[in-house]
Design brief:
It is built from 5 helices and 5 strands, in the order E-H-E-H-E-H-E-H-E-H. With 126 residues, the protein is an alpha/beta fold. It has a single domain (6-121), classed as Response regulator (Rossmann fold, 3-Layer(aba) Sandwich), CATH 3.40.50.2300. The modification 4-aspartylphosphate is found at residue 53.
């Protein structure tokens, strides 16, 4: 069965990127960006969904979300924030991400890759 849906994973941690790629590739076509600038470029290829880390080199996830929502070609692509930014400010960070247009906000340490796959299927029904 061909993989019809494309996911852009914007993640600077190489090990995590590989782990998520392995899990997601079973069901989706995955493209990985390792920094904000690369993520912005790859988003113009119009993936079906974007998984976005917040702490990134060159442009952080909040800056990227703002840029995505300003771009008419990208603004309707669902974005799930996937971050380890689980600090005492997590509620503020989550509010900001949702305010900027993210569909969901997941803290990596609280969600197994399989749970993330289930979340994705809510936004990308097969």
């Amino acid at each position: 069965m061909p993989k019809s849906k494309k996911i852009l994973l914007i993640e600077d941690d190489q090990d995590l990127a590989e782990l998520y790629d392995e899990v997601l590739s079973a069901k989706y076509e995955v493209e990985i960006a390792h920094n904000g600038k690369e993520g912005l470029e790859l988003a113009t290829k119009k993936p079906d969904l974007i998984l976005l880390d917040i702490l990134l080199p060159s442009m952080n996830g909040f800056e990227l979300l703002k840029a995505f929502k300003k771009d008419p070609q990208i603004k309707n692509i669902p974005v799930i924030v996937l971050t380890n930014l689980g600090s005492k400010h997590v509620d503020d960070d989550k509010k900001l991400a949702l305010l900027l247009g993210a569909e969901d906000y997941l803290v990596k340490t609280y969600h197994q890759p399989q749970e993330i796959l289930e979340k994705i299927s809510v936004y990308l029904p097969t």
